Amino acid sequence: MTTIKHISDIRGIGKLATEAVSGITSLVEDLHQTILSLNGILDSPYKEHTTGITGMVYHNIRTVTELVGNEMDVALNKIIAMIESNSSNPLSPPISIPLYEAFISALNGIIGDHLAASENPLAINMQFRQNGVTLPIDNESFSDGDLFLNQLIESNGKIALMVHGLCMNDLQWNRDGHDHGAELSRDFGYTPLYLHYNTGLHISENGKAFSELMEKFINQISNSIMDKPVEIVIIAHSMGGLVSRSAFHYGKLANHTWLKYVKKLICLGTPHHGSPLERFGNWIDMFLSINPYSAPFSRLGKIRSAGVTDLRYGNILEDDWKEQGRFEYSTDSRIPVSLPENIDCYAVAVTTIKDSCTIGKNLVGDGLVPLNSALGSHANPDFNLLFPDNHKWVGNNMNHMDLLNNHEVYQTIKKWVAIND
Questions:
Q1: Do 251 and 170 fall within a single domain?
Q2: 129 near 197, Cβ under 8 Å?
Q3: Final residue of a domain: which of 86, 108, 137?
Q4: E strands, 58-182, where?
Q5: 400 shares a domain with 345
Q6: Whole-Å CA distances, 257 to 230, 246, 262, 276
Q7: Is 398 within the bounds of a domain?
Q8: From CA 264, how far away is CA 160, in angstroms rounded?
Q9: Which of 23, 49, 232, 407 is the most buried (most CB within 10 A)?
Q10: Which residues lie closer than 8 Å to 290 by C-beta, 6 or more apart?
Q11: Angle subtended at Cα 192 by Cα 190 and Cα 196, rounded to the nearest 5 degrees
Q12: In terms of Cα–Cα distance, which of 94, 316, 97 is closest to 205?
């Protein structure tokens, strides 16, 4: 049985429910208005809201919903004050709950941009974590005796930085008892560190934030272990590879120093050129909006986040999306971005098809990402990422999530990490 991790999350869920009721009310009203407009008066102008008694009903539903939401906030403020006054209670429930974390992470992946824009407490703030505990990055240096500092000293400054994918979180690197970060710690002595972020935001927004966080982190490390070199290997799953590439781009523009400490970037099933599922979703948006009866329902498809729509073609820059509507039908208009310089970059791609079957391997891919996209290959040479042949590996009979714990995948990571180690 799971419990709420933070009492403020209750307010977040209540706020989200209030917004959902208002949104669905508007959707039903739009459908109602569409039907009325088509009832023999096809040339009449479309009105956003119904009028008369019907309009008053919908207006009252929205008003009552907002009032309930406001009253809920007042009540929750009292509850929060009571709980905070008893925060020293040793019988308080544990705060790290993997199942609840998974729910919040999935919610952020789907509507995380909305949660952030509405200042909902459920919105995830970018942070570095270990075992679900946030690493403090706001200090000038780590405190003597700090657990992370001790690990860093013991590892001679070697860090395995794990960057998760869409709708996921740092705890989910542990799958069926296997964690690539923990294994790299055991085999090579790396200190595992995990990025936790809101995957519903634009990839470019997360890229900029990741670069800024890395710069603070490196400065804090430098003030803590000035006599030791720092070496970082980034292991990125799925969207995490795009966020990492975006961070490299914006870090270079900002002349950030953290770039020189990263030795390797290993991408696991990263949709460098997007995912056909999001492109299919874009087609659905277009077809639903064509028919006046189905047009109101196109809003349901448009609930998906900015992070999800960035996966249509693999946008990693702000300029890739800021000049066009996210849900308008679009072709690939990205600005080409090469792999980061002076860093060894690697790509792992897998397919659900077995060795004996070759037809459709690239089309099927791992169920979410086609092989060519994961390998950075593209018909347009400007977009071709040109991973060296010995920096690419393709696995068979695996899906997208198997990348997190498959033995062959880890052995490949291990081989690449060992080079010049």
A1: yes
A2: no
A3: 86
A4: 127-130, 133-134, 158-163
A5: yes
A6: 12, 16, 10, 36
A7: yes
A8: 10
A9: 232
A10: none
A11: 155
A12: 316
